[in-house]
Amino acid sequence: MDSTLNKNMKLPYLISINRLKSFTAVMAVLFFFGSDGFAQKEKEENKKRKTYKELNAEAYPDKEDNLDGTFTGVNNTVGFSVNEPNPHTTMTSTAENEDIIGRWNITMDKDGKEAPSWLEVKLSGFKVLTGQFVGDDGSARPISQVNFENGKVSFSIPPQWQDTDKDLDFEAVVENGKLRGRIHHPSGGTYDFVGERAPSLKREGNPTWAAPIMLFNGENLEGWYADKDQNQWKIVNGILTSEASGANLISDQKFDDFKLDVEFRYPEGSNSGIFLRGRYEVQIQDDKGKEASSVLFGGVYGFLTPNEMVAKSAGEWQTFEITLIGRRLTIVANGKTIICDQVIPGITGGALDSHEALPGPIMLQGDHGPVEFRRIILTPAK
Question: Which CATH class is domain 97-197?
Answer without folding.
Answer: mainly beta
